[in-house]
Amino acid sequence: MFVLIIRRISLHGDQCGDAEAIDIGTQPKDFSIALSSPELVLVSIDSGVVMLRGTKVVSTINLEFTVSASIVSPDGSEAIIGGQDGKLHIYSISGDTLVEEAVLEKHRGAVSVIRYSPDFSMFASGDVNREAVVWDRASRDVKLKNMLYHTARINCLAWSPDSSRIATGSLDTCVIVYEIDQPVSSRSTIKGAHLGGVYGLVFTDEYSLVSSGEDAFIRVWKITPP
Fold this sequence. Notes:
- With 226 residues, the chain is an all-beta fold.
- The chain is built from no helices and 21 strands.
């Protein structure tokens, strides 16, 4: 049995609630929650995705490609699913199923991570071939390209709260910060951020970035404004 564990955490104490196990039938690879509709959860599996409403599995959707990354939009209306073939598939969510709207081709390696911008006007994707791409969500055109400054796979992405910059973390131990409205050559690079690779990134404000890595450290960085 392969299960997803959901545990409720109290906001008024240091105790976690009881855990609830949900059998999804196969090994989960990743999951994403619709933040403004938190009952909707999308779980990635090799053959497709599993959709949950609350703690109930409502559909298992098999796709014609091997899934490597996925994200559900904050309002639960859209999902973007990346494949081992480097393609990004954009779906509208209709009830408990997916309707394919577009396929985007830019990556030359398996998609490793996808993240929406906080203002929902863009999304970014990274791949195992060290490239990141920023897309305009409305037009589905590339907004920022040639983000090829890592030397190994991209493990994680993070947007600043004002959607003006994006950070990428890689197996190459570095973090790179790009300004969305500036050429990629004006990037800022944090070399050797984490021994063994960077695996987690989050902005706490426009110029503060938290990273975690294989070295078991969490570090806080101050980004110098351009």
